[in-house]
Design a protein that fits this description.
This protein is α/β, with parallel strands linked by helices. Helix content is 15%, strand content 32%. It contains three helices and ten strands. It is globular.
Length: 162
Amino acid sequence: MRVVVLADTHLRGGSGRGLPSRVLAEVARAEVVLHAGDIIDGAVLETLRAEAPTYAVLGNNDHDLVGVLPERLELDLAGVAVAMVHDSGPRKGREARLRRAFPAAGLVVFGHSHIPWNAPGLDGQWLLNPGSPTQRRAQPHPTMATLDLADGRIDRIEIVTV
């Protein structure tokens, strides 16, 4: 299963036209899209959903999506237990905090910092922050992530420069 992972798109007032062409191309090839919050405008979700099933969580700036999106989400994708939350908290203690919050998850997706993170957590759990494809902040490039899941395992995760 090919999955595109986004976070922190921060787009307002449009049909997702502000998404970079690389993001739109990857989404068109995806079987599933995950968005870890700070979407801002529901039109962006509609753009993503027009291409592939899209799962998203509420970010701290998603005021118009309160009551529409959950704060946390857990789902099974190709036999992999995936959890999503926007803000994982401070870097210090993140691995233990996410293991406690999502003990059954093999993969935890988060956003908020705009800092890409693709690293092991505790006890076999994997942690992924795709960064932001639209607001790189102090990062050298805007980013997103793609991953392949199959038969209960993560085959590949890549942070992609947009």
